[in-house]
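seq as requested:
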Amino acid sequence: MRLLAHVATMMAAVALGACATPGMHVGDGGSHASSDAAWAALDSNADGALSLDELERQHAVALQEDLPNADADHDGRVSHAEFDAWWPWMTRVPEPASMARLNASSSR
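struct tokens:
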């Protein structure tokens, strides 16, 4: 069971490590399921909110850095509803045209 929790935490960390940039769109399907899995891994004390301590313990760097945007009511914690609203922005997928421009500019 401990291994399963570790794997879930690692998956959440990888998902949260993604960086949203302009010219991206939300991927199709599965986003809400991914949000629930990430939430379960991050809310380690199951109190229904993510504190800065929890984010630091879970190494959720992307959410820590974007806390001002994720924490809509600015109470220093991210509720499940706030997390669900923030999640699509974090898990955006580059549009093919944006990736082509990026690849062309990096090969110069």
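Residues 2-19+29-93 form a domain with the Recoverin; domain 1 fold (CATH 1.10.238).
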